[in-house]
Amino acid sequence: MKTESLSPKILLLWLLLFAAIPLLMVVVTSLLSNATTQVASLPFTLAHYKALFSPLFANVMLRSLLTGLLTTFITLLLAWPFSYIMVKSRHQSVMMLLIIIPFWTSSLVRTYSLVALLKTRGLLNALLLKLHLISTPLPLLYTNFSVMVGLVYNLFPFMVLPLFTNMERFDFRLMDAAMDLGASRLRAFVKVFLPATAPGILAGCLLVFLPAMTLFYIPGVLGGARSLLLGNLIQNQFMLLDNWPQGAATSTLLTLMLLGMLALFRRRGVSL
Fold first, then answer.
1. Which of 3, 79, 103, 269, CA to CA, is 20 to 30 A from 239?
2. Tens of pLDDT along 190-225?
3. CB environment 231-256: b (16+ within 10 A), e (fewer)
4. Preceding omega of 81 cis (within 30 degrees of 0)
5. Which residues pair with 34 in a beta bridge?
6. Element (DSSP H or E) covering residue 102
7. How far apart are CA 178 and CA 195, in angstroms?
8. 33 by DSSP, 3-state: which?
9. Calpha distance 54→50 (Å, rounded)
10. The CA-based dihedral angle spanning residues 112, 114, 120, 123, taken in that order and rounded to the nearest 10 degrees
11. What's one GO BP annotation on this UniProt entry (predicted)?
């Protein structure tokens, strides 16, 4: 009984120490003035939030949103049929293992492995030259294409797992019942099966879209200086420009956006 009563208190203490207090420190830092000899100093100011309405931030935000949406769309196109095949397959454990194995290594290591694949003298260009599909190596690395490949590759499991979990719970006898009542296979699929997978689709899209907007090391490694996304902007404000209040203000705005999206998905009954 004592253990059960202490568990919520321990969880509350953990959230307070490692979530609420750090977030509060970020918000307070965003309201302070920038200083050359220390992280931040008085007086309080809203100048860093006003700077978020600049053309530079608007361009980075728009590019991040488009990258996140495109990454989510491509990942969904690949993950949905893969999850469906996995549900129907007799080799679910093998296919699931192929999804889980990449998690055994750092995503940063996996991202650097793509450099060897996409560089001018990399494996992909060598294969295309060997097959005589191209005459000169393609400039694949340090492009928007390479960033998209890295994001989709690293975030693919986050789309597959909720889709597979949702599809596995579906009673496929409902499809047979719909066809027995006169519906075609396509109509039964669209009207019965597809709506049943909507929670998995929404959960997977959320798990992919949010990191795709904010991951900074994938655009940094595969896109170079030209691929500046929101995560890279925050990193530069903290590490390169040494402007902690501006970085904190950008992080606070991003956190509010993400919390708003989470609240919207929760209202629609999507659980993560």
1. 103
2. 889 888 898 899 999 989 998 998 888 999 999 977
3. bbbbbbbbeeeebbbbbbbbbbbbee
4. no
5. 40
6. none
7. 14
8. strand
9. 8
10. 120
11. transmembrane transport
| CATH code of the domain made up of 54-87+103-268 | 1.10.3720.10
Q: What is the pLDDT of residues 257-267, one digit of tens each?
A: 888 888 877 77
Return phi, psi of residue 215, to 5°. Answer: -60, 130
Helix or strand holding residue 90 (H, E): none
Q: Which helix (H) or strand (E) holds 187?
A: helix 185-188
Which residues, 6+ apart, have CB-to-CB distance to 169 below 8 Å?
none
What's the pLDDT band for 271 if we cut at 50, 70, 90?
low
Kindly report the three-state secondary structure assignment for every residue of 29-91. Answer: HHCCEECCCCCEECCCCCHHHHHHHCHHHHHHHHHHHHHHHHHHHHHHHHHHHHHHHHHHCCC
| Token pair recorded at residue 13 | 């203490």
d(CA 123, CA 40): 47
Matching residue, tokens 């100048």:
47
- C-beta of residue 234 within 8 angstroms of C-beta of residue 250: yes
CA–CA separation, 43 and 29 (whole Å): 11
76 in Cβ contact with 160 (< 8 Å):
no
- Dist. CA 226–CA 63, nearest whole Å: 11
Cα 120 from Cα 141, distance rounded (Å): 7
Q: What is the pTM of this model?
A: 0.87
